[in-house]
Design goal:
Blueprint (H helix, E strand, L loop, with lengths): L10 H19 L4 E2 L1 H8 L3 H9 L11 E2 H12 L5 E6 L3 H8 L8 E8 L8 E2 L2 E5 L3 H7 L4 E4 L3 H13 L4 E4 L12 E4 L2 H20 L1
Parallel strand pairs: 3-4, 3-7, 4-6, 7-8, 8-9
Antiparallel strand pairs: 1-2, 5-6
Helix pairs in contact: 1-4, 2-3
Length: about 220
């Protein structure tokens, strides 16, 4: 595997790389050893030139008229995204969304290991959901420090999100995946990724509306 250069990659490229990985995983299961940018771009409806630029960020070099070695490319993308390292995480809020995330075993393939969940509902505390124990939210900082937790996942409502983020920061958690529809105030050294489902839905429905408009025009 090639050594990856340390620099800040464009965020749109970072968001496309996981999609490439899904395509490559299917191709790998079909026992194909090489893949071209054209093949990847065709499946994702992207510009082959853009795909080539994105893949270059991972440090891999393709072979003319052959393409990229699939297994090596998968490894390079995982390393570039940090998915080749197991990172312990905690989740706060075991409602419908939180429970669904706990049950998604594929996260382990991406280096995400959720070792504990937290809630303030007495009916949830003490449960074991998909192998993960649920603790009182007050214990979050203590458990985060003890297990050297790197990532925190917030799946509570907007009103509680900042309080949860503050508890995570007290536990020295430095990466927060926020599913609550509210921006968080955190120190500069803490990284937040806001997973706004309404934004994703808005993009989808606006594209559908555009297609419908084109059909009637």
């Amino acid at each position: 595997m090639r050594k990856i250069k340390k620099f800040s990659a464009p965020e749109p490229s970072m968001r496309r790389l996981p999609a490439y990985l899904h395509v490559l995983s299917r191709i790998f299961k079909e026992n194909q050893t090489f893949v071209s940018c054209t093949t990847i771009s065709r499946q994702l409806r992207l510009d082959p030139t853009q795909v080539r630029k994105d893949l270059a960020l991972t440090g891999i070099v393709g072979k003319p008229r052959v393409g990229y070695p699939v297994e090596e490319l998968i490894g390079n993308i995982k390393a570039f995204l940090g998915w080749d390292i197991q990172r312990n995480a905690v989740l706060v809020g075991v409602g419908s969304l939180g429970t669904a995330i706990l049950g998604y075993q594929q996260f382990r393939l991406y280096g995400l290991n959720i070792i504990a969940a937290f809630d303030r509902d007495p009916a949830q505390i003490g449960r074991n959901i998909f192998g993960v124990n649920v603790y009182p939210i007050e214990k979050l900082p203590e458990i985060a420090v003890r297990h050297q937790i790197e990532l925190g996942i917030i799946t509570v409502n907007a009103d509680s999100a900042q309080e949860v983020a503050d508890l995570m920061i007290r536990g020295f958690i430095r990466g927060i995946w926020n599913f609550a529809p509210k921006p968080l105030e955190v120190p500069n050294e803490v990284v937040v990724e806001n997973a706004l489902l309404s934004v994703s839905l808005g993009v989808l429905t606006s594209k559908l509306k555009q297609i419908e408009s084109n059909r009637t025009s």
